[in-house]
Amino acid sequence: MNALDDADRRILTRLRLNARIPNSALAAAVGLSPSACLRRVRLLERSGVIQGYTALVGGGLSDGGTIAIVQVELERQTEEYLVRFESALRRHPEIQEWYLMTGAGDYFLRVQIAGIGDYGDFHRDVLSKLPGVSRITSSFAMRSHRRG
Question: Quick one: pLDDT band at residue 148, thresholds 50, 70, 90?
Fold first, then answer.
């Protein structure tokens, strides 16, 4: 796909806020006809700009779950190490998001587990065995907020 234009960016912004918005409402919100809007959404999906839609399940702290933000440093930051590491992350549904970062750490992970007592096992059995990991630093959420 070529570079995104203003209409594509407006569509993506609206879909980030509500991916279940009906096409007619999305079209009206971004100033396109319903058919033009649907065509653009399908093109964004086919080109990989939109990689999927996800249900955010309520959670985290109010239902007893624990969210950990984990900073991971790798032994090396070569393409081979990054690919192996991210491939391993995909095998663990507890690791809900990850970001390749600039700065001190290589990755930030958002991990959701049943409770803080389970984190020690997850750290030992999963995080410390991820390929290429040299250092792990974990922080725990005390309160959760989402926009929207």
Answer: low
Task: Please report the domains of the chain, with CATH numbers, ordered by start residue.
Answer: 6-46 (1.10.10.10), 66-140 (3.30.70.920)
Element (H, E) at 7: helix 6-17
In the block, tokens 């005390």 appear at: 142
The rounded distance, in Å, linking the Cα atoms of 148 and 18 is 9
DSSP letter, residue 75: S
- Check residue 94 and report its DSSP letter: T
pLDDT band at 57 (very low <50, low <70, confident <90, very high): low
The burial of 138, by beta-carbon neighbours within 10 Å (0-12 exposed, 13-18 middle, 19 or more buried), is given as middle
Closest to 111 in 3D by CA, of 147, 83, 136 = 136
